[in-house]
Design brief:
Layout: H1 4-63, H2 70-86, E1 92-98, E2 101-107, H3 111-119, E3 123-139, E4 146-152, H4 153-160, E5 165-182, E6 205-209, E7 216-220, E8 231-234, E9 238-241, E10 247-249, E11 252-253
Helix pairs in contact: 1-2, 2-3
């Protein structure tokens, strides 16, 4: 039999193995979780800058100029899209009233669709319905024969009114399926939270470069202009490193996708 001293040493050894295994798992899991967090914030920050850049292009299309006012940018683009959804004739030169101020804009037909498909996620809607198919006979004066045709209920009246119509030979009910793409169900709204870096909560930097023949809009992450990289301590021994979220100049992104 083992003495109490030997049993105590074995017990300590067992606990040491358990603690070592836990520490080993943590050293593998925690860095991965931190890395996933870094990727998540990087994607979110770049997604917000991409949305801002797209909104500026739509703003330029409507007004002929860029704006450094992010809140006004989102308000006008959303108002234009909503106006066209409500009234499809709200095109060409129009006036949009925001908080008592009138803004002249120019919009082409389909502008709201391009805005919606740029920002919103598509939802596939599945529809199933029954359709009645009729087999009808029409006299063919050239051959003297009866030609049979398959028509649905909405076209039946037109065929029955034809002078060569003879009769309905058969009726069949079929089930059809249809997929429609809907962008309004998960409509994406441009809210003011998107104007800020998700990590520092500092606003993205807006610039309008007018040195060339055409003005160019630039949106930059506040992380890009920091003298020292942005980091945060995690679990006392690990470090969250945000990295450089970059910038967008015109249609060119500073990162590869």
């Amino acid at each position: 039999m083992l003495s109490k001293e030997q049993e105590r040493k074995i017990s300590i050894l067992d606990w040491g193995i358990i603690v070592s295994a836990i520490l080993l798992l943590l050293t593998v899991y925690l860095p991965q979780s931190i890395w996933k967090e870094e990727v998540k914030f990087r994607k979110l920050g770049r997604h917000r800058m991409t949305s801002i850049a797209h909104a500026e292009e739509f703003y330029f299309e409507m007004t002929g100029a860029y704006t450094a006012n992010g809140e006004h940018l989102f308000e006008l683009v959303e108002a234009a899209m909503d106006s066209l959804i409500a009234d499809s004739l709200f095109t060409d030169e129009q006036i949009i009233n925001l908080d008592g101020t009138e803004y002249p804009v120019t919009m082409e037909r389909g502008f709201e669709i391009r805005v919606d498909t740029t920002f919103s996620s598509a939802t596939d809607l599945y529809f199933s319905y029954e359709d009645t198919i009729y087999t009808v006979g029409l006299h063919n004066p050239d051959s003297g024969n009866i030609d049979t045709m398959f028509v649905n209920v909405k076209d039946l009246h037109r065929f029955k009114a034809d002078e060569h119509f003879r009769e309905i030979y058969n009726t069949d009910i079929v089930t059809r399926s249809e997929i429609r793409t809907d962008y309004l169900r998960r409509k994406y709204h441009l809210n003011t939270e998107m104007l800020k870096c998700p990590l520092t909560n500092d606003p993205f930097i807006f610039e309008i470069d007018t040195t060339g023949d055409e003005a160019v809009f630039i949106v930059t992450s506040p992380l890009h202009v920091l003298e020292e990289p942005y980091t945060e301590s995690r679990f006392g021994v690990f470090t969250f490193e945000a990295g450089d979220h970059g910038y967008i100049k015109g249609t060119q992104k500073s990162w590869a996708e």
